[in-house]
Design a protein that fits this description.
The protein is globular, with a radius of gyration of 19 Å. It contains 13 helices and no strands. The protein has two domains: 2-119; 130-262, no CATH class. The model is unreliable at 120-127 and 270-274 (pLDDT under 50). With 280 residues, the protein is mainly α. It comes from Friedmanniomyces endolithicus. InterPro entries: Sterol_Uptake_Regulator (IPR053157). This is C6 zinc finger domain-containing protein. One of its GO terms (molecular function) is DNA-binding transcription activator activity, RNA polymerase II-specific.
Length: 280
């Protein structure tokens, strides 16, 4: 990553900003100053990207790819300024940006230092360490019961279509997490949803109950990554926000996510905490 960052000022600023956030996590006594520095680096990074990134070429493809990932991880690493549910919609759209950049740069990135992530697939390239991988009890029950959930109450036809597509994608990730037994990568969980991210985000912003239930089950996947310093606590914050937004008669649908995430022993982020944790 540092070698790629040296080829691009905007990528270097993104890396320095993320590094400052990590140092703030490790040294709370000077966290305020470090977070200020991190935001300053991020601002310079975003300005630099807009002004100097230009069309994707062999020379800048790796920097663009690294930059988009750093921005997403940065967004997870700082406390949101909006309700957690709404923050998730912003993250969904950020992740969509990774797909756009990757579509333009695949040929070059697949031949560079990030090639393992692409050529071997997100599922195999960089995986969750066995000591941090713990599929929640009950995950093998699956999500088929949520198909029924989409039909138990009034919902606009197009809204149901969007929720059904997102649910189908979520089922695939659940199956992958269970099947791979520790070989599921961080990227395969974070790069969600790949389809209909904008319409699904609008449903969440409107607090459509069916969309919030699907989001609650996605939180279970985010919680699998909870030992990483930059995402620690995210799943719990979003789920609490969902509990506060869902009408009471809908809350039975998210009993398992709530129990899985909110009832587990609270632990400080470990494992990747002592490292920058950039591997995706």
């Amino acid at each position: 990553m540092p070698k790629v960052a040296f080829t691009s000022d905007y990528c270097m600023h993104a890396l320095l900003g993320f590094s400052a956030l990590h140092k703030a996590h490790m040294e709370p006594g000077i966290a305020t100053a470090l977070r200020t520095s991190a935001v300053d680096h991020l601002d310079k990074s975003l300005v630099g990207y807009r002004e100097h990134s230009g069309p994707t070429t062999a020379e800048n493809a790796d920097a663009k790819f690294a930059f988009t990932w750093l921005v997403v991880l940065f967004a997870y690493a700082i406390p949101p300024s909006v309700p957690p549910i709404d923050a998730m919609t912003e993250l969904f759209l950020l992740v969509k940006g990774i797909d756009s950049v990757l579509a333009e740069s695949w040929f070059w990135v697949s031949q560079g230092p990030f090639a393992p992530i692409l050529t071997r697939g997100f599922q195999e390239a960089i995986t969750l360490p066995p000591e941090t991988y713990a599929p929640p009890e009950g995950m093998d029950f699956g999500l088929n019961h949520l198909d029924y959930m989409l039909n138990v109450d009034a919902i606009l036809l197009d809204d149901r279509r969007v929720c059904a597509l997102i649910l189908a994608e979520l089922k695939q990730i659940y199956d992958s997490v269970l099947r791979q037994q520790g070989q599921t990568s961080v990227a395969s969980i974070l790069c969600f949803p790949k389809m209909e991210s904008a319409p699904f985000s609008l449903l969440i912003k409107r607090r459509v109950p069916q969309a919030l239930v699907v989001l609650a089950y996605y939180c279970v996947l985010l919680d699998v990554l909870d030992s990483r310093w930059w995402i620690h606590g995210w799943a719990a914050r979003v789920l609490r926000d969902i509990l506060g937004a869902l009408p009471e008669h809908w809350q039975t649908w998210i009993q398992w996510p709530a129990q899985s995430i909110l009832s587990k022993p609270q632990m400080r982020a470990t494992g990747a905490s002592e490292q920058l944790g950039l591997m995706v």
